[in-house]
Design goal:
By secondary structure, this protein is mainly α. The chain has nine helices and no strands. The two termini are 29 Å apart. The model has no long low-confidence stretch (mean pLDDT 82).
Length: 239
Protein backbone atom coordinates (compact mmCIF):
# COMPACT_ATOMS: atom_id res chain seq x y z
CA UNK A 1 0.00 0.00 0.00
CA UNK A 2 2.86 2.37 0.81
CA UNK A 3 4.43 1.64 -2.58
CA UNK A 4 1.17 2.37 -4.33
CA UNK A 5 0.73 5.63 -2.44
CA UNK A 6 4.31 6.63 -3.22
CA UNK A 7 3.93 5.99 -6.95
CA UNK A 8 0.61 7.83 -7.01
CA UNK A 9 2.18 10.88 -5.37
CA UNK A 10 5.06 10.78 -7.85
CA UNK A 11 2.67 10.86 -10.76
CA UNK A 12 0.44 13.69 -9.57
CA UNK A 13 3.20 15.86 -8.12
CA UNK A 14 4.66 16.69 -11.55
CA UNK A 15 3.16 19.22 -13.94
CA UNK A 16 3.56 16.89 -16.92
CA UNK A 17 0.65 14.72 -15.77
CA UNK A 18 -1.73 17.63 -15.32
CA UNK A 19 -0.59 19.28 -18.55
CA UNK A 20 -1.03 16.19 -20.72
CA UNK A 21 -4.44 15.29 -19.35
CA UNK A 22 -5.55 18.91 -19.48
CA UNK A 23 -4.54 19.22 -23.14
CA UNK A 24 -6.30 15.97 -23.97
CA UNK A 25 -9.55 16.99 -22.31
CA UNK A 26 -9.44 20.50 -23.77
CA UNK A 27 -8.96 19.03 -27.24
CA UNK A 28 -11.86 16.67 -26.60
CA UNK A 29 -14.10 19.58 -25.65
CA UNK A 30 -13.09 21.50 -28.79
CA UNK A 31 -13.55 18.52 -31.09
CA UNK A 32 -16.88 17.57 -29.59
CA UNK A 33 -18.19 21.12 -29.69
CA UNK A 34 -17.05 21.83 -33.24
CA UNK A 35 -18.06 18.49 -34.71
CA UNK A 36 -21.45 18.16 -33.07
CA UNK A 37 -22.17 21.88 -33.29
CA UNK A 38 -21.20 22.48 -36.91
CA UNK A 39 -21.47 19.21 -38.83
CA UNK A 40 -24.70 18.56 -40.74
CA UNK A 41 -26.97 16.33 -38.69
CA UNK A 42 -27.20 13.76 -41.45
CA UNK A 43 -23.40 13.37 -41.34
CA UNK A 44 -23.27 12.63 -37.64
CA UNK A 45 -23.29 8.87 -37.22
CA UNK A 46 -25.41 7.23 -34.60
CA UNK A 47 -22.48 6.89 -32.20
CA UNK A 48 -19.72 9.01 -33.75
CA UNK A 49 -20.49 12.02 -31.63
CA UNK A 50 -20.15 9.97 -28.46
CA UNK A 51 -16.44 9.35 -28.83
CA UNK A 52 -15.45 12.46 -30.78
CA UNK A 53 -11.95 13.58 -29.80
CA UNK A 54 -10.69 10.40 -28.14
CA UNK A 55 -7.71 10.10 -30.51
CA UNK A 56 -5.45 12.70 -28.87
CA UNK A 57 -6.41 11.61 -25.36
CA UNK A 58 -5.51 8.02 -26.29
CA UNK A 59 -2.09 9.12 -27.53
CA UNK A 60 -1.43 11.22 -24.44
CA UNK A 61 -2.50 8.38 -22.14
CA UNK A 62 -0.18 6.05 -24.03
CA UNK A 63 2.73 8.48 -23.59
CA UNK A 64 1.87 9.05 -19.93
CA UNK A 65 2.08 5.29 -19.34
CA UNK A 66 5.56 5.29 -20.88
CA UNK A 67 6.65 8.20 -18.70
CA UNK A 68 5.54 6.48 -15.48
CA UNK A 69 8.48 4.08 -15.73
CA UNK A 70 11.01 5.66 -18.11
CA UNK A 71 11.26 8.89 -16.12
CA UNK A 72 12.92 6.92 -13.33
CA UNK A 73 15.67 5.74 -15.68
CA UNK A 74 16.06 9.08 -17.43
CA UNK A 75 16.62 11.04 -14.22
CA UNK A 76 18.62 8.32 -12.46
CA UNK A 77 16.12 7.79 -9.63
CA UNK A 78 15.47 4.12 -10.49
CA UNK A 79 18.22 2.89 -8.14
CA UNK A 80 16.76 4.62 -5.08
CA UNK A 81 13.24 3.59 -6.05
CA UNK A 82 14.12 -0.09 -6.28
CA UNK A 83 16.08 0.01 -3.03
CA UNK A 84 12.82 0.61 -1.16
CA UNK A 85 11.93 -3.09 -1.30
CA UNK A 86 14.10 -6.24 -1.43
CA UNK A 87 12.48 -7.19 -4.75
CA UNK A 88 11.75 -5.04 -7.76
CA UNK A 89 8.50 -6.56 -8.92
CA UNK A 90 6.30 -5.03 -6.17
CA UNK A 91 7.48 -1.56 -7.28
CA UNK A 92 6.69 -2.44 -10.90
CA UNK A 93 3.24 -3.74 -9.98
CA UNK A 94 2.55 -0.51 -8.07
CA UNK A 95 3.53 1.47 -11.16
CA UNK A 96 1.26 -0.72 -13.29
CA UNK A 97 -1.65 -0.13 -10.92
CA UNK A 98 -1.04 3.62 -11.10
CA UNK A 99 -0.92 3.48 -14.91
CA UNK A 100 -4.25 1.65 -15.01
CA UNK A 101 -5.73 4.02 -12.45
CA UNK A 102 -4.74 7.26 -14.18
CA UNK A 103 -5.97 5.89 -17.51
CA UNK A 104 -9.34 5.02 -16.03
CA UNK A 105 -9.58 8.46 -14.41
CA UNK A 106 -8.81 10.06 -17.76
CA UNK A 107 -11.61 7.98 -19.26
CA UNK A 108 -14.08 9.08 -16.62
CA UNK A 109 -13.06 12.71 -17.16
CA UNK A 110 -13.64 12.20 -20.88
CA UNK A 111 -17.14 10.91 -20.19
CA UNK A 112 -17.94 13.97 -18.07
CA UNK A 113 -16.64 16.38 -20.72
CA UNK A 114 -18.14 14.58 -23.69
CA UNK A 115 -21.43 13.72 -22.04
CA UNK A 116 -21.81 17.23 -20.68
CA UNK A 117 -21.10 18.90 -24.02
CA UNK A 118 -21.65 16.76 -27.11
CA UNK A 119 -24.92 15.09 -26.16
CA UNK A 120 -26.77 18.23 -24.96
CA UNK A 121 -25.48 20.10 -28.01
CA UNK A 122 -26.76 17.41 -30.35
CA UNK A 123 -30.12 17.41 -28.58
CA UNK A 124 -30.34 21.21 -28.82
CA UNK A 125 -29.94 20.89 -32.59
CA UNK A 126 -32.87 18.47 -32.56
CA UNK A 127 -30.64 15.61 -33.60
CA UNK A 128 -31.51 12.05 -32.73
CA UNK A 129 -29.65 10.80 -29.70
CA UNK A 130 -28.44 7.19 -29.68
CA UNK A 131 -30.13 4.78 -27.30
CA UNK A 132 -29.02 5.17 -23.70
CA UNK A 133 -27.70 1.62 -23.67
CA UNK A 134 -25.54 2.28 -26.75
CA UNK A 135 -24.13 5.46 -25.25
CA UNK A 136 -23.30 3.70 -21.98
CA UNK A 137 -21.64 0.87 -23.91
CA UNK A 138 -19.41 3.23 -25.89
CA UNK A 139 -18.52 5.27 -22.82
CA UNK A 140 -17.60 2.11 -20.91
CA UNK A 141 -15.42 0.99 -23.80
CA UNK A 142 -13.63 4.35 -23.92
CA UNK A 143 -12.94 4.31 -20.17
CA UNK A 144 -11.55 0.78 -20.28
CA UNK A 145 -9.49 1.49 -23.40
CA UNK A 146 -7.83 4.53 -21.81
CA UNK A 147 -6.88 2.46 -18.77
CA UNK A 148 -5.46 -0.32 -20.93
CA UNK A 149 -3.66 2.03 -23.33
CA UNK A 150 -1.89 3.70 -20.42
CA UNK A 151 -0.87 0.27 -19.11
CA UNK A 152 0.25 -0.64 -22.65
CA UNK A 153 2.56 2.39 -22.66
CA UNK A 154 3.88 1.35 -19.27
CA UNK A 155 4.65 -2.12 -20.64
CA UNK A 156 6.56 -0.67 -23.58
CA UNK A 157 8.47 1.57 -21.18
CA UNK A 158 9.65 -1.38 -19.09
CA UNK A 159 11.06 -3.03 -22.22
CA UNK A 160 12.47 0.05 -23.98
CA UNK A 161 13.78 2.05 -21.07
CA UNK A 162 15.05 4.95 -23.16
CA UNK A 163 12.29 7.51 -22.82
CA UNK A 164 12.28 8.89 -26.36
CA UNK A 165 12.73 5.44 -27.87
CA UNK A 166 9.87 4.01 -25.82
CA UNK A 167 7.49 6.81 -26.78
CA UNK A 168 8.33 6.44 -30.47
CA UNK A 169 8.02 2.65 -30.27
CA UNK A 170 4.64 2.79 -28.54
CA UNK A 171 3.18 5.34 -30.95
CA UNK A 172 4.64 3.57 -34.00
CA UNK A 173 3.14 0.27 -32.93
CA UNK A 174 -0.31 1.76 -32.72
CA UNK A 175 -0.47 4.20 -35.57
CA UNK A 176 2.25 3.45 -38.09
CA UNK A 177 1.57 -0.28 -38.09
CA UNK A 178 -2.22 0.06 -37.82
CA UNK A 179 -2.76 -0.17 -41.64
CA UNK A 180 -0.67 -3.37 -41.81
CA UNK A 181 -3.53 -5.72 -40.80
CA UNK A 182 -5.37 -4.81 -43.99
CA UNK A 183 -2.64 -6.62 -45.91
CA UNK A 184 -2.84 -9.76 -43.79
CA UNK A 185 -5.07 -12.71 -44.70
CA UNK A 186 -8.22 -13.55 -42.83
CA UNK A 187 -9.03 -11.93 -39.51
CA UNK A 188 -5.47 -11.84 -38.15
CA UNK A 189 -5.48 -8.05 -38.29
CA UNK A 190 -8.38 -7.87 -35.85
CA UNK A 191 -5.98 -8.86 -33.08
CA UNK A 192 -3.66 -5.86 -33.45
CA UNK A 193 -3.91 -3.30 -30.60
CA UNK A 194 -5.35 -0.45 -32.70
CA UNK A 195 -8.04 -2.70 -34.15
CA UNK A 196 -8.82 -4.10 -30.69
CA UNK A 197 -9.42 -0.56 -29.43
CA UNK A 198 -11.84 0.05 -32.29
CA UNK A 199 -13.77 -3.05 -31.30
CA UNK A 200 -13.65 -2.08 -27.63
CA UNK A 201 -15.21 1.28 -28.47
CA UNK A 202 -17.90 -0.52 -30.44
CA UNK A 203 -17.96 2.01 -33.29
CA UNK A 204 -15.06 1.18 -35.62
CA UNK A 205 -14.88 -2.12 -37.39
CA UNK A 206 -16.25 -3.91 -34.34
CA UNK A 207 -15.17 -7.21 -35.86
CA UNK A 208 -14.39 -8.76 -32.51
CA UNK A 209 -17.08 -7.21 -30.35
CA UNK A 210 -16.44 -5.09 -27.29
CA UNK A 211 -15.67 -7.86 -24.81
CA UNK A 212 -13.35 -9.69 -27.18
CA UNK A 213 -11.65 -6.42 -28.13
CA UNK A 214 -11.05 -5.68 -24.47
CA UNK A 215 -9.64 -9.17 -23.88
CA UNK A 216 -7.29 -8.87 -26.87
CA UNK A 217 -5.96 -5.51 -25.70
CA UNK A 218 -5.61 -6.88 -22.17
CA UNK A 219 -3.60 -9.80 -23.55
CA UNK A 220 -1.22 -7.36 -25.28
CA UNK A 221 -0.79 -5.45 -22.03
CA UNK A 222 -0.22 -8.65 -20.04
CA UNK A 223 2.39 -9.85 -22.51
CA UNK A 224 4.30 -6.55 -22.54
CA UNK A 225 4.20 -6.17 -18.77
CA UNK A 226 5.35 -9.76 -18.22
CA UNK A 227 8.32 -9.34 -20.56
CA UNK A 228 9.16 -5.90 -19.21
CA UNK A 229 8.96 -7.01 -15.57
CA UNK A 230 11.31 -9.92 -16.26
CA UNK A 231 13.80 -7.64 -18.01
CA UNK A 232 13.78 -4.96 -15.32
CA UNK A 233 14.19 -7.55 -12.55
CA UNK A 234 17.17 -9.15 -14.30
CA UNK A 235 19.01 -6.17 -15.73
CA UNK A 236 21.07 -3.68 -13.82
CA UNK A 237 19.12 -0.42 -13.42
CA UNK A 238 22.08 1.58 -14.68
CA UNK A 239 22.17 -0.21 -18.07
Amino acid sequence: MNLLRSEWIKLWSVRTTWTMLGIGLLAEALFAGLYVGLAPLDEIGSLEQVETGTGLLLVLSLVLGVLIVTTEFRHGTASSTFLVTPRRWPVLMAKLAVALGVGLLAGLAFVLVNGGLALPLLESREGSLPAAGDIASVYAGVVVSLGLICAFGYGVGTIVRNQVGAILAAIAFFFILSPLPELLPGSIGDYFPAQAIGSLHGTEGDNLGQIAGGLVLSAWVLGLVTIGTALVCRRDVSE
